[in-house]
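Figure 2 data, in text form.
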Amino acid sequence: MVIPALVEAQDMASALSAINTPYEEECPVLSPDGKLLAFTITGHPNNVGGIKDHGDIWFSTWTGTGWTKPVHGGHLINNKHHNTVAGFSPDGNQMYLMGHYAPPGKAVTSQGISVSVRNGDTWSAPVNIKVPYFKNYSDYNTGFLSSDGTVLVFSAQGYQYDNPDLNHVDIYISQKIGGQWTEPKSLGPKINTPNYEVTPSLSADIKRLYYSSNAIDKDVSFDVYYSDRLDDTWENWSAPVNLGPEVNSAGREYFYRPSQVGSFFSSTQNSDGYADLRFVASSDTVEVPVMIDPTEEVKVVSTDTTAKIDEGKTRIWGKVYNTKTNQTIPGAVIHFTASTNYPTTASTSGDYEVKLAGIEEYAVKVEAPGYIGDFERLDLRTQALKDLEMNFKLIPIEVGASITLKRVLFERSRPVLLTSSYDELDMVVDFLKENPKVEILLEGHTDNQGKHDLNMKLSRERTNVVKAYIVAKGIEERRIATKGYGGTRPIADNDSEDGRALNRRVEFKITKDPM
């Protein structure tokens, strides 16, 4: 059946504000009944691998008027790898995932796709499905399963043994024929270029390909394009067409996913530097076909009961470590602040424990005499655990000690601080007040996108903005020096958005002995 649009496009776009977080939202997939939106969040501290996790699957439910706050999908369908949804079966009871999974404590040794079965409000441990000769050298799994379950398109990094410089990301296809998946093959040179083609999807009739590329139009980081399949070879395509300003912007657009109610996609336009989910009305609202030859026999292995929200208290516990010695720091103070302040002091062994009563977002501040403090955020509105371990590592105060200000963010391509930066900057102010002999150097860094001279200028301007904020809070100007490095000192690979996000940072370094 054809599912009617849930709301007008403008209302749907507004409703997504409940989903978008300060982190990166990508890979949106709508269930066939239009009631469940699965997507991936990268860099969220509540991911299985924490803020360095490549991405976990989260869910939001349609209430009839809007989307609920995101809920983590649990540890059965998420691991420390890049976890994404490729599609649902027509009845919505099977969810297909990119990548293979291993039992707890075991390493993943194969690649392909997998399937998880709905069991009430939870999803079973995924069952691996073999796709012969499936190989992706990238850390990111992005693919799309056609609504009838017979065609998988995905982007992957191949390896050119004779020329490693050509290890770009291309789009491939595998088809399910006679109950078996075929060996993946490239979509050919009409689609794939020497640069990057990523995040493919298909129209409901499997005739139109949507994908993002940074190679078709000059000076475009990533825009969404479409191309029509001209025959059954999957290698003969019409010329790519840019989807235009309704979708594409000066930012990066990818993960364009048509659905029965419109199209969802990710964009960095008007975001906090990380991609947010967007929505646009589309005409691709045809009937969802019946799954052809569903030959996989899937059994529910176990269910993830952590996916249900507990309105009671959440126990937070852990240790505070010295980064140089890896020993615990006795007496460290950990503040959890939201509508209620929960100060707690680590014991003589360096352990701490606190019980938080509210389903809120908390600012977490960690301090200890003789150490540079740490700052994190904990969003219990989206975390469904009763028990959570949070460990911290503090850097001793000494000349040369350097720390990245993880939560100091700016408007895209501008030296304008986001208000979410103030909490961490206030912690820097407190540190300088408590250590009046310390002098610091603020270092600004960008990724390598765009012109070198503009990146150098932007990095200098951003450090000056941070300095101005600190000085306005009562710190002497002479104690703060600034320097911009542009994109010359990356700490991660600029070939991925996650890597570029890590490279866009402000650091401070102690330059004068505090003693």
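Caption note: The radius of gyration is 24 Å.
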